[in-house]
Write a structure and sequence with these properties.
This protein is an alpha/beta fold. The protein folds into 2 domains: 255 residues, Metallo-beta-lactamase, Chain A (4-Layer Sandwich); 41 residues, no CATH class. The chain is built from 9 helices and 18 strands. Strand 2 and strand 3 form a beta hairpin. It is globular.
Length: 305
């Protein structure tokens, strides 16, 4: 089953050098989520031939414009295409008022229901859960309320070893094997041992999205051992004082968090417009954490089972 992160936007406060403001599409087991929705996000979705209507949950990290100004355009397009499914939007306080005010003054009533979920400051909490995965907030350190998001697959069932499976087993017995149970006879004795008929579950995968934030060691504790980490890297070390003043991170800061958290791969994004060439950003991170990549528009990062 799929687990894929597609980069729709990688720029910081403004579009620059063909880079769009922050937005990502997350696909997990045929579920589609959007994380942040900067200006031009729907144009990027169109370019990648992604159906808007498959996106039912949008997570907005904070209310600086480069992270949500594409949202109204996307909502209006969904309406014009006669969307019917509910749209869930997760954000800190204020976004519901921003959206409803624009709808009121344009005398617009969407063809679908928008359900707002408020995030709380400095709170680590599961905000979405279904049978396959959870999404948990990551408290970040920025000039306004800001949260990252941790996507985790739940433990998966054991896999049936079809080469050893006896003929004639009932559906209920196969379901028991997937749960890890032995198959018992009517007297309660073991008829088949689970270990003899099944294989280990497939890996449960994980992805953390850390939007605008100053260097914060607590992030590393929460995301220990995850498969893929996106961490903002607005500046290189030549602008470390600027990073501290604006509560952003350098590439070295992001790489240090990745190393502390023992993650498998690191993605860098949210690049300042002062960097046309991003090579210095990447080269700054590599000595600290070698398995690092630039999160550039159109790039897809897949996590294998």
């Amino acid at each position: 089953m799929s687990f894929k992160v597609t980069i729709l936007g990688s720029s910081g406060a403004m579009p620059a050098y063909g880079r769009h403001p922050t937005a990502q599409l997350i696909e997990i087991q045929n579920r589609h989520f959007m994380v942040d929705c900067g200006e031009g996000a729907q144009m990027q979705l169109m370019r990648l031939d992604v159906s808007y209507h498959r996106i039912n949950h949008i997570f907005i990290s904070h209310l600086h414009g480069d992270h949500y100004l594409g949202l109204m355009g996307l909502i209006f397009t969904m309406h014009l295409q006669r969307r019917v499914n509910d749209l869930h939007i997760y954000s800190h306080r204020g976004l519901d008022e921003i959206i409803t005010t624009q709808l009121r003054y344009s005398r617009s009533a969407p063809s679908f229901k928008i359900i707002f979920h408020r995030l709380e400051k400095d709170e680590r909490k599961i905000i979405f859960e279904d049978e396959a995965l959870t999404v948990e907030t990551i408290p970040l350190l920025h000039k306004i309320r800001c949260s990252g998001f941790l996507f985790r697959e739940k433990p998966k069932p054991r896999r049936i070893d079809k080469t050893r499976l006896p003929e004639g087993l009932l559906i209920q017995q196969i379901a028991s094997l997937k749960r890890g149970d032995d198959i018992l006879d009517e007297a309660g004795s073991i008829l088949y041992k689970n270990a003899d008929l099944t294989l280990s579950p497939r890996k449960s995968r994980s992805y953390a999205y850390c939007s605008d934030t100053a260097f914060r060691e607590a992030i590393a504790e929460q995301i220990q051992g995850i498969d893929l980490l996106y961490h903002e890297a607005t500046f290189a070390n030549d602008e470390e004082l600027k990073a501290r003043d604006t509560l952003h991170s350098t590439a070295a800061h992001a790489a240090t968090i990745a190393k502390m958290a023992n993650v498998s791969r690191l993605l860098l994004g949210h690049f300042s417009a002062r960097y046309k060439d991003l090579t210095p950003i990447l080269e700054e991170a590599k000595p600290i954490f070698p398995n690092v990549y630039l999160a550039l528009e159109g790039e897809e990062f897949t996590i294998q089972e």
